[in-house]
């Protein structure tokens, strides 16, 4: 796996996946379930980001334990570990990487993607009808939709950027796609995955990128 359950803390915390906390019978259950989601959906998001052919090349850089093979193609090492570079406009920018650490926390757009899907699929199992907020004498159910939307839009920001100011305009006419870079406004210095791939097209010429739609707190 590219990521593991250690990425699911803080804003992406998933109940009952941390080991050696409280010896409850269901403590291990969500851990196993989350691992299944990681295996399935990290492949899905990376195939969508790279296309199947490029993904087959990309996945070869990982050892079975998720560590990188040092002698791998530099373009895949940069994709995973991040890269700082000066783009064609003369701006110094940084791609953080598919996975990175800030302080004691680990981050990955893959984790945002997996979390949003996992929470959407399993939120009803957490508390019957939704999320549960513990109170002193009772428990109050809350919709999980705002949290799912927050995670999903966090993924969108890292994956393809916020709005059309982050990347060129993509149009589809009669099934034919075109890219218009003249309408783009690449001002941010910490960039999305799409911008990194677009600005290094000569290195990632075999990549086929899929865009996603954003979501709001009403699930629309």
List keywords for this structure.
single chain, 220 residues, two-stranded antiparallel sheet, two-stranded antiparallel ribbon, 35% helix
Write a brief structural summary.
The chain has 220 residues and is of the alpha+beta class.
Question: How are helices and strands ordered from N to C?
Answer: HHHEEEEHEEHEEH
Strand proportion, as a percent range, falls in 5-15%
**SS summary, helix count:** 6
Shape: globular
Average pLDDT figure:
79
Structural class: alpha+beta
**Over the alpha carbons, how many angstroms does the gyration radius reach?**
19 Å
Neighbour order of strands in the largest sheet: 1-2
| Number of strand segments | 8
**Major pleated sheet:** 2 strands, antiparallel
Description of the molecule:
With 220 residues, the protein is of the alpha+beta class. It has one domain. The protein has helices spanning 29-50, 52-58, 74-81, 109-127, 145-159, 193-199, and strands at residues 83-86, 92-95, 100-102, 105-107, 131-134, 139-142, 169-173, 176-180. It has a two-stranded antiparallel sheet with strand order 1-2. Strands 3-4 form a two-stranded antiparallel sheet. Helix 1 (29-50) runs antiparallel to helix 4. The chain is globular.
SSE map:
Elements: H1 29-50, H2 52-58, H3 74-81, E1 83-86, E2 92-95, E3 100-102, E4 105-107, H4 109-127, E5 131-134, E6 139-142, H5 145-159, E7 169-173, E8 176-180, H6 193-199
Antiparallel strand pairs: 1-2, 3-4, 5-6, 7-8
Helix pairs in contact: 1-2, 1-4, 4-5
């Amino acid at each position: 796996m590219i990521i593991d359950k250690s990425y699911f803390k803080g804003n992406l915390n998933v109940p009952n996946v941390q080991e050696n906390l409280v010896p409850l019978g269901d403590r291990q259950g969500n851990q196993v379930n989350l691992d299944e989601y990681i295996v399935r959906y990290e492949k899905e998001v990376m195939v969508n980001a790279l296309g199947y052919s490029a993904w087959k090349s990309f996945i070869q850089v990982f050892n079975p334990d998720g560590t990188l093979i040092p002698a791998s193609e530099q373009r895949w090492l940069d994709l995973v570990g991040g890269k700082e570079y000066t783009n064609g406009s003369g701006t110094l920018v940084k791609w953080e990487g598919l996975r990175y650490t800030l302080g004691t926390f680990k981050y990955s757009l893959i984790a945002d993607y997996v979390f949003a899907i996992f929470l959407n699929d399993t939120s009803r199992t957490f508390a019957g009808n939704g999320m549960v907020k513990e109170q002193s004498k009772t428990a109050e159910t809350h919709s999980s939709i705002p949290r799912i939307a927050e995670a999903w839009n966090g993924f969108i920001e890292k994956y393809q950027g916020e709005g059309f100011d982050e990347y060129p305009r993509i149009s589809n006419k009669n099934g034919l796609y075109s890219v218009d870079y003249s309408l783009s406004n690449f001002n941010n210095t910490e960039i999305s995955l799409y911008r990194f791939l677009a600005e290094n097209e000569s290195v990632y010429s075999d990549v086929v990128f899929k865009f996603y739609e954003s979501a709001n707190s009403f699930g629309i």
